[in-house]
Amino acid sequence: MGENDKDLAEVHTPHPRVHYYPGCSLMSSARELGESLFQMSRLVGSWLEELKDWNCCGASPAHSVNQNYAILLAGRNLVLAERQGIRDLYVICPSCFVRLRTAEKTLIAEPEKNDLLEEAIGKRYQGSVRLRFFLEVGSSSRLNIFQQAVVNPLKGLKGVLYFGCLLTRPEWITGFDVLPYEDELRSFVESLGVETLDWGYGKQCCGAHLAVTKPDHVDSMVDRIRNHARRVGANCMISFCPLCQVNMELRGKNSEPLPVFYVSELIGMACRLPRSEKWVRKHLVDPRELLATHRLL
């Protein structure tokens, strides 16, 4: 079967298989993101398959300590994907995405780095894996399925979209341009019943990469973002990054906390997908009072 035939087969299969790299957060601090994504995939008939034997990509401190080790950590995952015949590897965390993308570009452009990888794990990276950010899996047809499945419109939630700084870096760095998705995501979130508010801090860095080394500095960064969200009338934030989400709920000393939802959680609540109440219990800022006030649970 040729490459074009494989593409057509993947498009027309009733249960398309989506290979993904989970990263450490999805297995720990962001389990609610992982569980809600799995329920979403079932709703649209997709089958999520985890990269086998994956390891931490080194985000976010490894590259600050030893750049070669950071390349080896991320590069091993790329080689694993090649061995497992994965063409498109979806990455859920923006920080993981940038680290894997950096390793991919480095290993192709600098053969000596690929030599180090081969010495460490016994195989070179051939460059056949296409890294994709998870928002790319949300085709218009799939978004329509979610919209049609809404039975619990999230009226009363007033949210600001928080993309963070990693996704908004230049496309030549990340390989992904968030701009075409911004208006579509806003419209989609509004179709779930959430009122989205205009603000100017959706792409400001929250300091997640400094959370351990400079916590006081991070507190002030989070306070500034969260205060501005409150100022425009938000009662929640909507995040696309597990590191940003936990940082925005955990940090900040001089601002009133706000629940920070993932888009997948909003879909789960609006469509009453199984286990959605369990997800919200995992939040560091408990959103249940807000949700109960508007009879959304």
Any overview of this molecule?
With about 300 residues, this protein is an alpha/beta fold. Helices cover about 50% and strands about 10% of the residues. The protein has helices at about 5-10, 25, 30-45, 60-65, 65-85, 95-110, 110-120, 140-150, 170-175, 180-190, 215-230, 240-250, 265-270, 275-280, 290-295; strands at about 15-20, 45-50, 90, 130-135, 160, 195, 235-240, 260. The strands form two sheets. It has a four-stranded parallel β-sheet with strand order 2-1-3-4. The chain is globular, with a radius of gyration of 19 Å. The protein starts with a helix and ends with a helix. About 40% of the residues are buried. Mean pLDDT is about 85; it is low at about 1-15.
Give the secondary structure arrangement, pairings included.
Layout: H1 3-12, E1 17-21, H2 23-26, H3 31-43, E2 47-50, H4 62-65, H5 67-83, E3 88-91, H6 94-109, H7 111-121, E4 130-133, H8 140-148, E5 158-162, H9 171-174, H10 179-191, E6 195-196, H11 215-231, E7 236-239, H12 242-250, E8 260-262, H13 263-270, H14 276-280, H15 288-293
Parallel strand pairs: 1-2, 1-3, 3-4, 5-6, 5-7, 7-8
Helix pairs in contact: 3-13, 5-6, 5-7, 6-7
